[in-house]
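Exam prep: given the inputs below (a chain plus NAP), describe the expected output before reading on.
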Amino acid sequence: MTQRIGIIGHPLHHSLSPLFQQAALDALEIDATFASWPTPPEEFAETVEGLRADDCMGCCITLPHKEVALELVDELDPAAEEIGAINTIVNDGGRLKGYNTDAPGFLRGLREAAGFEPQGRAVLVLGAGGAARAIVFALREAGVSRLTIANRTEERAQALAKDLTRGRFRPDAMSLDVDRLANAAPYADLIVNATSMGMSGGSAMLETPVPPELISGSALCYDAVYAPPMTPFLQAGEDAGARIAGGLSMLIYQGAEGFKLWTGREAPVEVMFDAIPEAMREG
Ligand code: NAP
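Solution:
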């Protein structure tokens, strides 16, 4: 029986997941299809129930369902529980288990695609939404020495810092304004944009969260946004003489983690990268 996997979100116009996941399934000759399952919030619970079917391996979850999904599965991976969001569901014989693969996906992208080892480094994370929560968790597990979270809504940055505090890992929290950023951005070895600023089609598509004059030339600027490949934040990093890396690696590696969870097979990541249209790639 051909198996089904899909991505659930709303809207889902530009998802690249069906493209690179299907290429990976085909490359390993796995009899499964990966589809786009656009689902508005009022239909989400019913769609998740449908994942229990015999011919369904599970799904990816994207905006706006990542937090609600947490309540609908039977079991949660402990990391996903702490992050407070899931982006992957596995159907294990009718029982649904939720995972967050954004965290390991980000870390693998940072290490393998951007060549950056976060252990012992000072990091500034911009944003406090779902992506930022996974990224702060990943950076904590990787042993960063210092972490600051800056967000437009300062209370959300404070809540995230509090939620993920553990032992000596105590993130600072601040608002995303230039005066405050001046105390953190120039001293960061790594700056991660986990806001939706710069995202294609978004209301702040032409804006960078940090201006170039606050970025150190020795820093790495990593943008979780992957469309467009060159964002205003990455442009600011380049203008400052810093190294830059876009979010395509995080997208592919979070998908590779999901692939392994659904199929039990190591994902062919080169096939996945090759499936991305040239215009969507960096550099
Ligand atoms: P989310 O939960 O909706 O959070 C959005 C974040 O962006 C919040 O911190 C929000 O601040 C901030 N924000 C939105 N508009 C802003 C503006 N005009 N000015 C300043 N801050 C603004 O979304 P998410 O899931 O975290 O996703 C964030 C971005 O990461 C998206 O662009 C998404 O595509 C990308 N992402 C990429 C990957 C990947 O695999 N590469 C994975 C996940 C997400 P407030 O708290 O003040 O609203």
